[in-house]
Each structure stands twice: as C-alpha cells, then as structure tokens.
Design a protein that fits this description.
The chain folds into two domains: 116 residues, 2-Layer Sandwich (Phosphorylase Kinase, domain 1), CATH 3.30.200.20; 225 residues, Aminoglycoside 3'-phosphotransferase, Chain: A, domain 2. 39% of the residues lie in helices and 15% in strands. The chain contains ten helices and nine strands. The two termini are 29 Å apart.
C-alpha cells in the first residue's frame, strides 16, 4: 500500500548505523564465526510487507578454519511497539522454526534461516537472520494492477506460468504430512474445537486490539457475524497455512517462485485459507485499479482457474470458497485499519473521524457482508 502521496509507507524508526554496529557485535557470537566480522550496506527495503522490519545487509567473517564467508543477508525484526505493530504479537522463533521445517519437509521455496535471536537486548526486539534471495516481486507500490511494471507488461502466457507455479508452491506447503503435530507452535491459542474455530477466534482477538486503539469498525464486526451464520459444515483436513499467501510476498526468478516470504500469519487450518487468500489479494488490487478507470488484470488469478489447478495438483476438492473468500476480505479490512493507524503514527496521513475510511477495500466488504 501507499501513503496518500503515493509513496511507500514508512515501516520503521530504527537507525541503520546502530543496527550495523549491533549486528556486527552479535555475529561474532554465532556458531561457526571465529572473527573478522564486517557488516555493511545496512538498509531497509521498499519491497512489500508492512509488519516486521526487514533489514538487508552484507556480512563477512572467518570461520574456525580461517575461510572467509561473504553473505548477503536479511534480518526480520519484530516491530518496535512504539511503531504501532500490525499484529498483537510476533513469534520470531516460531517463524524461524517454520522456515526450517518447510525447507526440510517440502519442495516449497523458502529462504534459508541461519540464526534466531530471542533476546530483545541485541536489536531492541527478537529477530532472525536468513540468506537473501534475489529476484523480482510484484509491486504493491503502486499495485501491479496499475501497469508499468514487469508483471503487468508480461505476456499472458508468462502470467499464467507465474500463477500456476505459485499455486504449485502453495500445494507443496499443503502436502507436508502431519501438519498439526509438526507445526504445533502455529496452532492458535484461543479456544475452539477445530483449527478453523481457533483461527477465527485469533482474528477476533487481533481485531479487538485494533478496535481498542481507536479503529473500531461496525463493518468488520458485521463480517464476523456473517461468518458465524455461514460456518462450513465440513472444514476438511488441517494443513500448514502460509497465512499471507499472495504474490506480493513471493520473490520470482523469471515467473517461478524462488522464495515465499512473510510468515507472521502462518498457522494450521483448512487448505482453503491460502487458496482464497491468494485469489482475494488479487481482487483487492484489481478493484483498486478499476475504481480509478484502469483495466487492471481481469483474467489473472481467477478463482475457478486457481482452484482447478490446485485440485489437479493435489487431488483435493475445495469447498465453501465463498466463506473463505469473505474471511480473507475481513482480515484485509483489519490490516488496512492497522496500517492506516501506522501511517498516522509516522505523519503520513491524518486519522479520519471515521476509522472505516482507512479500509481500502471498504466497498468490497460492504458488498460481501450486505446479506
């Protein structure tokens, strides 16, 4: 998303030079690092993602055998509580462990996690470090549906290749067996008889935090009521759910995923959670484009095409997609409420008298929860 001026949203108030010094000191204590540590090129990123702080840096060191290592790295740091975090809590150890398990148990492309530091004294908050992956990301700023970017300008065949390979990456995540026992750290702590019940209860608790900070939305509350009235009769098997499964969280080499990013929303639950999120995330950007008189990409990431390809890969039939699509819409509304509040914190906009003016997909929510 952008500010009202059309520039990237500020994500952090941390000082790069302070981070450089502290990262260098910390690296000297890591296993396999004997000395000669140098850290340079510390910088934030204009890439997508508005939750954890993402810090890019280069590091070199000597190992115990005297060999020199030069690495391009990324630190994911839990946000400073003063910077209006999007989510109530950030389990950096859980994200680190999830990446490691996914790399070990599946063919899904995720970054290589190297170290996790739970002590907030080092950088001011827990963080983990992973190897950097090069490639292209469909932009949020301005949204890729607005034109003048590599994905919009691609051929229809290349966009289809990107769509199908992204669905295949999600299917690979969902193919990890025994997800409920292997990813116990991701199951929601809130009360509920099933993973989906706990998932939605967790989202309610997240919204309660947002509302308590002044961003109450009767529209979002209407959405929760709709979900209660239309609950799926059968939830299906619980799989590893990426949670924020959208193309803006993928690094591509050409038109094939090489890294799935942003695991703050990961959990266990029905496979429809990720499939619906992938589709609805595009719907949000497509509607933003058409609202401005732009064509967007109306033939991209259509729900029937995505579901048919997913089923062809997995053999799993998808059910109650309208429920999961609306659940995705509701969560997007909460995200926009919170990121709008962050914009105000960084002086990038004024808080409106009506918090629902912060919700970019307000018209979509109003339509979806009108009955």
């Amino acid at each position: 998303m952008t500010t009202s001026a059309g520039v990237p949203m500020q994500r952090s108030s941390r000082d790069p030079e302070v981070l450089r010094v502290r990262l260098a000191t910390w690296l000297q204590t890591r296993g396999g690092v004997a000395g000669g540590v140098e850290v340079s090129g510390v910088r934030g990123t204009d890439a997508n993602g508005m939750s954890s702080d993402t810090i890019l840096f280069d590091a070199s060191w000597r190992d115990d055998g005297g060999d020199v290592h030069d690495e391009a790295l990324v630190a994911r740091i839990a946000p400073d509580l003063r910077d209006v975090p999007v989510f109530p809590a950030y389990d950096m150890q859980g994200q680190f462990d999830t990446l490691g398990l996914v790399r070990r148990l599946s063919t899904a492309p995720v970054p290589d996690p190297m170290w996790c530091e739970p002590d907030p004294a080092v950088l001011g908050a827990p963080f983990f470090v992973m190897r950097r992956v090069d490639g292209q990301v469909p932009p949020d700023v301005l949204p890729y549906t607005f034109g003048s970017n590599w994905l919009y300008d691609a051929t229809a065949a290349d966009r289809s290749r990107l769509q199908e390979s992204t669905v295949a990456a999600i299917a690979a995540l969902h193919a990890i067996p025994h997800a409920t026992s292997r990813f116990t750290h991701l199951d929601r702590a809130e009360a509920g008889a099933t993973p989906l019940r706990r998932h939605v209860a967790h989202t309610r608790a997240w919204y309660a935090m947002v509302a308590a900070d002044g961003q109450r939305s009767p529209l979002v509350e209407r959405g929760f009521d709709w979900l209660d009235r239309h609950w799926p009769a059968h939830e299906g098997d619980a799989v590893l759910s990426w949670g924020d499964a959208r193309i803006g969280n993928v690094i591509y080499a050409g038109f094939t995923p090489v890294a799935l990013l942003d695991w703050e929303m990961a959990g266990v639950g029905p496979r429809e959670l990720d499939v619906a999120w992938l589709v609805f995330a595009h719907e949000v950007f497509q509607e933003l484009a058409t609202s401005l008189g732009l064509d967007g990409l109306p033939d991209f990431l259509r729900i029937d095409d995505v579901c048919a390809h997913y089923t062809s890969l997995t053999g799993a039939e998808l059910h109650d997609l309208e429920f999961y699509r609306r659940y995705a819409a509701l969560q997007w509304g909460i995200v926009f409420l919170r990121t709008g509040r962050r914009q105000a914190h960084f002086g990038e906009r004024e808080l409106p008298a009506d918090p629902e003016e912060l919700i970019y997909n307000r018209a979509q929510l109003d339509r979806l929860f009108s009955t």
